[in-house]
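Input record, target 12 of the design panel.
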């Protein structure tokens, strides 16, 4: 990541494998995990307040409006092997575009 590129900040839902959190931290991304048993509205508010991309397996968040949450990565890929989803996520982070929405 170059210094001119904004740093991606992630919010990891409790239903996501811990290996993904470790991977993102190893890649030097700003990562925060959800407090267990947080409500969907608390998670959405935290994502929006801290401008964090929520990574989740929860399909409820896929229906969230931009006014409710900052951004969502809804994992729809099998998680039986952590290596299976590391590469796609790494490519996503590398190619993420930052668009200012007013």
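The sequence produced for target 12 reads:
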């Amino acid at each position: 990541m170059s210094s001119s590129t904004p740093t991606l900040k992630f919010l990891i839902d409790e239903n996501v494998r811990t290996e993904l959190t470790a991977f993102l931290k190893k890649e030097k991304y700003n990562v925060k995990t959800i407090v267990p048993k947080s409500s969907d509205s608390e998670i959405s508010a935290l994502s929006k307040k801290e401008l964090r991309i929520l990574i989740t397996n929860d399909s409820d968040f896929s229906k969230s409006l931009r006014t409710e949450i900052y951004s969502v990565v809804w994992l729809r890929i099998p998680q039986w092997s952590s290596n299976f989803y590391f590469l796609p996520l790494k490519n996503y982070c590398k190619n993420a575009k930052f668009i200012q929405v007013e």
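The longest helix spans residues 82-95.
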